[in-house]
TrEMBL record:
It comes from Streptosporangium pseudovulgare. This is Peptide ABC transporter permease. Residues 106-296 form the ABC transmembrane type-1 domain. Residues 1-24 are annotated as: Disordered. Belongs to the binding-protein-dependent transport system permease family. It is found in: Cell membrane. It is a multi-pass membrane protein. CDD domains: TM_PBP2. Keywords: Cell membrane, Membrane, Transmembrane, Transmembrane helix, Transport. The chain crosses the membrane at residues 42-63, 110-133, 145-165, 171-189, 224-253, 278-299.
Length: 308
């Protein structure tokens, strides 16, 4: 009798049956992209910086005991003081603490950027999805409408819209920027949908009798949304800079609201005498815009297999 025991007999001898090996998880674009992003220093650095800015914008009171929204916190007798232990970034022309105003100014700038990004991504994405999927007269109509918006200079158009409202706050600035920015998202989504709808999995879904909404939202949208995510991430930083530009020109946010652009506008006249009230909000603005642009570049490289 042979000393070799068959595998099945060995399992019976030790009791129980061997568990079948686990099937490997199916790879996907998003899982591969996340695995790639976790090893990119550019993504990690920009994500940490953005997380810090978001925490400051959401909870500025954690980092300063001064409330710049309270007029009593400003002392005109202490105007344009240099940096000190009492005022880390010095004081502005009205004797307000620049450090506290810079931290509180992050909130409005971030809210405008996020709100505009969400509106443009949703509106432009949905319209681009429908136009690219339907084609024909629907596609032609929306394409001609977007060409009208592209013909309007962005800054000039925003100035006109804000002049109509005669008031500058977070929501009017968001509306002015979103009205002029959604056509870009539309074009990107439309091009991605036109490419995706000719793929085999869409043809198979049609052959199986799937409805048009199911094909659009179940099969095409998940495979066409990646370029929109990349552009929206980069645009978020652009919208923050645009809000600062409009506030600097005097048509964006206005006092008593606080934003980085408004602080830069207020400090420019006495810049040579007191540079800190302009330099610190400008530094925070530049770092925020740069962080979102770097994040968008990292996401773009991770989602595009050709760049890996």
């Amino acid at each position: 009798m042979s000393d070799t025991i068959a595998p099945s007999a060995r399992r019976r001898k030790h009791g129980g049956t061997a568990k079948p090996p686990k099937a490997p998880k199916a790879a996907s674009l998003w899982s591969d992209a996340w695995h790639d992003l976790r090893h990119r220093p550019l993504f990690i650095g920009s994500a940490v910086l953005i997380a810090a800015i978001l925490v400051i914008a959401a909870f500025p009171g954690l980092f300063t005991s001064v409330d710049p929204l309270n007029a009593a916190s400003c002392d005109l007798a202490k105007a344009r003081q240099p940096m000190s232990g009492a005022h880390f970034f010095g004081t502005d022309n009205l004797g307000c603490d620049v450090y506290a105003r810079t931290l509180y100014g992050a909130r409005n700038s971030i809210v405008v950027g996020l709100s505009t990004t969400i509106v443009t991504a949703v509106v432009g994405g949905l319209v681009g999805l429908v136009a690219g999927f339907k084609g024909g007269a629907v596609d032609t109509l929306f394409s001609r409408i977007t060409e009208i918006f592209f013909a309007i200079p962005s800054i000039l158009g925003a100035l006109l819209i804000l002049a109509v409202f005669r008031t500058g706050n977070v929501w009017t600035v968001t509306l002015a920027l979103a009205v002029l920015a959604w056509p870009m998202t539309f074009r990107i989504m439309r091009a991605a949908v036109i490419t995706a709808k000719s793929q085999d999995y869409v043809v198979a879904a049609r052959a199986l009798g799937a409805s048009a909404p199911r094909i659009m939202f179940r099969h095409i949208l998940p495979n066409a949304v990646a370029p929109v995510i990349v552009v929206s991430t980069i645009n978020l930083g652009t919208f923050i800079a645009a809000e600062a530009g409009l506030s600097f020109l005097g048509v964006g946010l206005r006092s008593p609201d606080i934003s980085w652009g408004l602080m830069i506008s207020d400090a420019r006249e006495r810049f040579l005498e007191a540079p800190a009230p302009l330099l610190f909000p400008a530094l925070f603005l530049s770092l925020t815009v740069l962080a979102f642009i770097m994040l968008g570049d990292a996401v773009r490289d991770a989602l595009d297999p050709k760049l890996r």
